[in-house]
Amino acid sequence: MSERLRFVIVDDDPGSASAAKALLEGRGHDASIFFDPEEALASIPIDPPDCVLLDILMPGLDGLEVCSRLKEMPKLSGMKVVMCTAKAFDSDRRRAIEIGADGYIVKPIRKDSFFETLDRVMANELEFTFWGIRGTVPRPGRETLRYGGNTSCVSMEFPRGQLFAFDAGSGLKVLGDSLVKRGERLTGKLFLSHPHWDHINTLPFFAPFYVQGNEWEILGSPHGSVTVKDLVNAQMDGVFFPVTTREFGAKLEFRDLREGTYEFDEISVSTMLLAHPGNCLGYRVSMDGRSVCYITDNELSSPTSDNHTVEYEERLLEFVRGTDALIIDTNYLDEEYESKVGWGHSSVTQVANFAHRAEVKTLYPFHHDYAHDDDTIDRKLEQMQEILKTSDTEVVQPVEGDSFRL
Questions:
Q1: Can you give the C-alpha Rg of the chain in angstroms?
Q2: Which residue(s) pair with 263 in the sheet?
Q3: pLDDT surpassing 60 at residue 304
Q4: Which residue would you say has higher pLDDT here, 24 or 123?
Q5: Is domain 6-123 annotated with CATH 3.40.50.2300?
Q6: Does residue 323 carry a pLDDT above 80?
Q7: Higher confidence at residue 239 or residue 22?
Q8: Count of CB atoms within 10 A of residue 45's CB?
Q9: What predicted TM-score, i.e. pTM, was given to this entire model?
Q10: What proportions of the chain, in percent to the nearest 5, are helix, strand and coil?
Q11: Is the dihedral of CA 261, 173, 280, 314 positive or negative?
């Protein structure tokens, strides 16, 4: 929020309201307070602000009812409404979104997350962050300092407070530690592409699962009669790990996904089975006309190989077509792929040509082979940039910890 904005705070708690006002004014914004929700409802339509911060628990009209009434007024259609409340329950968050709230902040207010949420709300942006970009096993050391050595994990945060994570490689540990530092109750969804070790081995170390009051759902593809819940419970069986899922403090639920489209609080998630051993799901996440595709562990075979299927590649092209961001398996150098046909991974030229054909806006190479140090990733990037130099598709190599906004 670089421009000066005007906020109205509606909260019957003077301490909380004053704290929010001080933070906003400290960033150069204008802020005023209403302790009476009826008075706020009468005043706001006369001189609409850019954003209203609403408590839920107030005497008389509660914040949800105030939000509902404000959203019914056509002249306020451009005004944002953010719930700012001590109610951290997922049911309250969902209800707020259903009646039109543009964001949800849990008290007590913490400066960094407060402004991160408001920035996303005011810009209506989806933010995605890379916590691990490598495949197979982590590779710490001097040769991976620039891009990072952790394995597959990407998070997505949305204007209304929804939190998604994709895959549980070693990057999930870093994501979990950063989330716990926020000191907030957390509600989120963890989408698994598939249960190969490098995509699930950090599930037992995800700190938010151990925090009472958190609510998480783990989603992914079943394997025959083996459900996602079975897969996670088996991995954390006492034989393999001393802590089982029964020791988690958070409320944990599981959902099996198949090919299709699922709706989560006005966020659309489409799935497609990928060319990889076992059931491996690719995801397309869409919000307000923008999308991110997460396509890891996938083989785009050469047309000259016995493993090539034209029909599959055409289906995948349509699945990702026109996406703003394509995060995709780019495991091999071209010369390596010749001896790896049928292993379920793709090479530099395959990925670059595919992204161009799919009219992808930005390509993010991902799931780099364990043998590839930072210099090798540089080579892969240069090769893709050369292939795409006349294309409208841009290629960006993410660094561990990089965040991008749409």
A1: 23
A2: 268
A3: no
A4: 24
A5: yes
A6: yes
A7: 22
A8: 13
A9: 0.90
A10: 30, 25, 45
A11: positive
Q: Are 13 and 55 in contact (CB under 8 A)?
A: yes
What residues does CATH 3.40.50.2300 cover in the chain? 6-123
Strand partners, 319: none
Residues of the chain with CATH 3.60.15.10: 127-405
- Confidence class of residue 13 from pLDDT cuts 50, 70 and 90? very high
Give the C-alpha separation, 331 to 370, whole Å.
Answer: 9
Return the amino acid letter for 388.
L
What integer pLDDT is reported at residue 53 of this predicted model?
Answer: 97
Q: Distance from CA of residue 296 to its chain's centroid?
A: 15
Residue 303 has pLDDT above 80, yes or no: no
Give 404's strand partners: 128
Two structure tokens written together for 31: 């802020």
Q: Give pLDDT, residue 306.
A: 59
Position 41, amino acid: L
Helix (H) / strand (E) element for 115: namely helix 111-123
Judge whether residue 281 has pLDDT over 80. Answer: yes
Euclidean distance between CA atoms 358 and 361, whole angstroms: 9
At residue 379, the 3 state secondary structure works out as helix
The CATH number of domain 127-405, selected from 3.40.190.10, 3.60.15.10, 3.90.1570.10, 3.10.129.10 = 3.60.15.10
CA distance 149 to 153: 12
**Helix 111-123 / helix 14-26 crossing angle, nearest 10 deg:** 70
**Cα–chain-centroid distance for residue 91?**
20
Mean pLDDT, the chain, integer? 93
> According to the model, what pLDDT value does residue 170 have?
97
Q: Are 183 and 163 in contact (CB under 8 A)?
A: no
Contact 328, 364 (CB under 8 A): yes
Cα dihedral 244/250/256/257 (nearest 10): -130
What confidence score (pLDDT) does residue 3 get? 87
